[in-house]
Amino acid sequence: MSERALLHQVHLGKLAADICASAVSSVLLWYHALLLGVLVRLALPIAGSAIVLATFDAERLRATRRGRYVLAHMPAWCQAVRLAGDLLTALGAWWHRWAVIALGLIVIAAGWSHGALPRHRPASQST
């Protein structure tokens, strides 16, 4: 993934689009408006990405704490974990299961927390 594509994930506009899409979509899915719920969950983040990628200053964002964090701590597997958490929140809304929604939010938080994980140092490198 390009550095610019990675950086856009922590742009406030992109984060707002993703969070709003998830919240609105979850409400729609709760009421079993499947087509509209899925459309909101997919279209709003895609539109947010397109707008942010076309307009944001990558150099400026790279210099922020958020930018440095995402560049250092957002491997592809963390992004997959976040996506899995989003799927859980959607399913939890559809099934009317608050515990599944909460689990999804925990999984999303775990996907963002790679930088908080302890680093393993091989015994041969310890000082």
Q: What's the topology here?
A:
Elements: H1 3-8, H2 12-30, H3 34-55, H4 58-62, H5 65-73, H6 76-95, H7 98-112
Helix pairs in contact: 2-3, 2-6, 6-7
Give a written overview of the molecule.
- The model has no long low-confidence stretch (mean pLDDT 93).
- The longest helix has 22 residues, at 34-55.
- This protein has seven helices and no strands.
- The protein is mainly α.
- Helix 2 runs antiparallel to helix 3 (34-55), helix 2 packs parallel to helix 6 (76-95) and helix 6 (76-95) runs antiparallel to helix 7.
- It has helices spanning 3-8, 12-30, 34-55, 58-62, 65-73, 76-95, 98-112.
- It has one domain.
| Integer tally of domains | 1
Global morphology: flat
Average pLDDT taken over every residue = 93
Low-pLDDT segments, ≥5 res: none
Radius of gyration: 17 Å
Descriptive labels:
single chain, 127 residues, mainly alpha, 0% strand, flat
Short description:
The chain is mainly alpha-helical and 127 residues long. It has helices spanning 3-8, 12-30, 34-55, 58-62, 65-73, 76-95, 98-112.
